[in-house]
Amino acid sequence: MTFNMIRGPRAVFGTLIGQVRRGVMTTGSRRLCSKPQEGVPAPNQAPGLGFKVPGYRPTEWDKKMLVWSGRFKTAEQIPEFASFEMIDAARNRLRVKACYVMMALTIVACLVMSVTGKRAASRNDNLTNRNMEKKARWREEAQKEKEAAIALAEKAQ
């Protein structure tokens, strides 16, 4: 059974490693059963570690995100401790706003490129003509340099 899980996809192998680390694989073949098994002791927890202050102390960046997302009007209104869900919702809202801005900028850039392309086409300006003009300039410069080198060589003699 375990051999087939190891040979499977990586996701199965990852869950196998997670199950071994959590101690689920030591319980035998009752992995999917949610009932407690007799003879298997519950994991020991240290006393006092189960209690945690509900909340998260937001950083300055988190406070800016909470204000920008519209959750609070000013940074002074933000409580000392905020829930992680509130901060996560503000991050998600800003993520969506950033996506909307990027979509709008992409559409504007497409329209600008379309207009400039049409103007260039009306002037009969395209990459082929530009490339041919550039190569003609290079040939002229090379010819001038060649003539200058020949004249310099004749003058030296």
Automatic annotation (TrEMBL):
Keywords: Membrane, Transmembrane, Transmembrane helix. It is a single-pass membrane protein. Its main location: membrane. It holds the Pfam family DUF1075. The chain crosses the membrane at residues 98-117. One of its GO terms (biological process) is neuron apoptotic process. It is found in: Membrane. One of its GO terms (cellular component) is membrane. It comes from the Eukaryota. Belongs to the UPF0389 family. This is Protein FAM162B-like. It comes from Carassius auratus.
